[in-house]
Amino acid sequence: MPDNWATGKTEKGWITGEAFYEYIANVFHLWLLENNVPMPVVLFVDGHSSHLTLHLSEFASKNGIEIVALYPNATHVLQPLDVSVFGPLKKKFAQKVKEWKIANNTLVLNKIKLPMVLDQN
After folding, report:
1. Cβ contacts of 46-55, under 8 Å, gap ≥ 24
2. Any bridge partners for residue 36, and if so which?
3. What is the enclosing helix (H) or strand (E) of 23?
4. Are 66 and 43 in contact (CB under 8 A)?
5. What percent of the chain shows pLDDT beyond 70?
6. Sign (positive or negative) of CA dihedral 66, 37, 22, 75
7. Distance, CA of 63 to CA of 29 (rounded, Å)
8. CA 53 to CA 57: how far, in whole Å?
9. Assessment of whether the complete model's pTM goes beyond 0.85
10. pLDDT tens digits along 66-105
11. Which residues make beta-bridge pairs with 42?
């Protein structure tokens, strides 16, 4: 995995409040500081309960991170994100996977190799 990436896991494989807090506190916040991003910043999250814990809210408030929870089941309202952010990301992802498969036709692309494929320019 590239040095500037982070990964985590939970017992059941689903995001938890603790795992999300660890990401925000130990990866996202540090990245903001290292890159001299002016505070406050706005972090948009979905309404999943793991993103809306008191512990995270207190940390974010103390560190200049404004958390905005988007409404659940609001894809129709948030379509601009699909068009401007997630659409191009999915397209680039598919392109990188296709290129890798062509270059490595006998190998299987698994989740261990995937970060390195995505990190290529």
Report:
1. 46/70, 46/72, 47/71, 47/72, 48/15, 49/17, 50/15, 50/16, 50/17, 50/19, 50/20, 51/17, 51/20, 53/17, 53/20, 53/21, 55/17, 55/21
2. none
3. helix 17-23
4. yes
5. 89
6. positive
7. 8
8. 6
9. no
10. 999 887 777 667 667 777 777 788 888 888 888 888 888 8
11. 66
